[in-house]
Amino acid sequence: MDGATLTGVELGDGLPVVFLHAGVCDHRMWHDQMRLAADNGWHAIAYDRRGYGDAVSADEPFSHLDDLEAVLDAFDIHAAIFVGCSMGGGLAVDFALKNPGRVIGLVLIGTSITGAPWTATAEESAIEMAEEDAWERGDLDLLNKVQAHEWLDGPRAQSGRVGGSTRELFLDMNAKALAKPALTREEPRPDAWSRVDAVTAPTMLIVGDEDFTALIERHEHLSETMPNSFAAVLEGVAHIPSIERPDLINRMLDEFLDALAGEDLEPDDDE
C-alpha cells in the first residue's frame, strides 16, 4: 500500500479467521483468541490498522476497507470469518455489505456501525466531557486514563474496576494510538445502519452490560434486524471482553467456529 506499512501476527493453518481490533486497541487485544483458533485448526490473522500499534502510515487518502482487502489479497484469502470489536466490527460489517461472497461468518463485539445513531445517559455524558477536556488540553496521559475508564471499566462503573496486566495492556495499546500523528484523509464509508438486514452471513453478536447504553441498544436492534444472527449479553463486562474475560470470549468463539466447521464454508459468490 502506498505510504503505509501494516503490521500484525498470524498463527496456525487452515481456514482463515481475521481479527479486527477496537479503536482503543491494536492486534494484541486478540492474543488469547488467536491462540485458541490456531490450536483448533484455523489460520488466525490480526493486524494493526493505520494509526494503531506498529503500523506506519503517511497522512494520505486511504480507506480501511481497501487496506483490509489488501491484507486478504496478500495472504491469497478469498473468504474468511471476521471477528471484530467496536470499530473493527464496523469495518467487518462494511466489508460484508460490499463483499458478501467473501464472508463465511461474523463475530461482532460491542460493534460500531457506520451511520448508527448515538445517545448517552447523563452519567455517560459526564465521562465523555472529561474525555473531550483532556483532548482539548493535549494531555494524552490523562486522556488515556479517561478512555480506560470509558472502555475497559465501563462508563457507569468504578474507575479502576479492571486492573493488573489487563489494564496495563489496554493503556499501552491506547497510548500507542494516541501518540501517532492524526490521519485526516480517510475516505468516508457509506451508511450501513439502514442496510444491516442485508448481512446474511451467520453472525454472533456480543455486548457487555457495562458498555455504553447506546451500544447495548444497538446490539438489541442488530439482533432483531440481522437475519442470521444470535446474540448474547455478558454480565459484568464492558467494551473489551477479549482481554477482560478471555475465558468467556474464547468459549463462545470456539462454539461458533465449531458450528461453522459443520457447514459448507465457501460462501456463494453470487450472493
TrEMBL record:
Q: Which residues form the signal peptide?
A: none
Q: Which residues form a coiled coil?
A: none
Residues annotated as domain AB hydrolase-1:
17-250
Q: Which InterPro entries match?
A: AB_hydrolase_1, AB_hydrolase_fold, AB_hydrolase_sf, Epox_hydrolase-like
UniProt-recorded Gene Ontology molecular function terms: hydrolase activity
- Keywords, A to Z? Hydrolase
Its Gene Ontology cellular component terms are: membrane
Source superkingdom: Bacteria
PANTHER family linked to this entry: AB HYDROLASE SUPERFAMILY PROTEIN YCLE, MONOACYLGLYCEROL LIPASE
The name under which this protein is listed is: AB hydrolase-1 domain-containing protein
In which organism is this protein found? Devosia riboflavina
